[in-house]
Write a structure and sequence with these properties.
With 105 residues, the chain is an all-alpha fold. It folds into two domains: 30 residues; 45 residues. Helix 2 packs antiparallel against helix 3 and helix 3 packs antiparallel against helix 4. The N and C termini lie far apart (46 Å).
Length: 105
């Protein structure tokens, strides 16, 4: 890729990123009181994080079996109100053990 295309793409990306952050600040100058919009804005970060993370869980391992096992362990640990570090460690250990078991079978 030559420098001209790179800088065009960089400027376009910076412009879009800036507009997404600037437009709400310019258009909304009063506190939001609508309960629907407030609840929508409250859950947007969780939704985006889930949409970005969950598919990556299934493609990060050598097999789908170990990915599903790690995902299920993470869900169960989260349901038992474990911390984020504990959930990550439990799911990593589950994936590792499953991968080792699948390589021996």
């Amino acid at each position: 890729m030559d420098n001209t295309k790179f800088f065009i793409y960089l400027i376009a990306m910076a412009g879009v990123t800036y507009l997404v952050r600037m437009v709400p600040l310019v258009l909304v100058n009063k506190p939001i009181k609508n309960k629907f919009i407030l609840s929508f804005l409250y859950y947007v970060p969780y939704t985006v994080l889930s949409v970005m993370t969950i598919p990556a869980c299934f493609y990060a391992t050598n097999s789908y079996i170990s990915a599903v096992v790690g995902f299920l362990v993470a869900v169960v640990a989260a349901l038992f109100k474990r911390s984020l570090v504990q959930v990550a460690v439990f799911s990593c250990v589950a994936v590792f053990v499953t991968e080792v078991f699948l390589n021996y079978v």
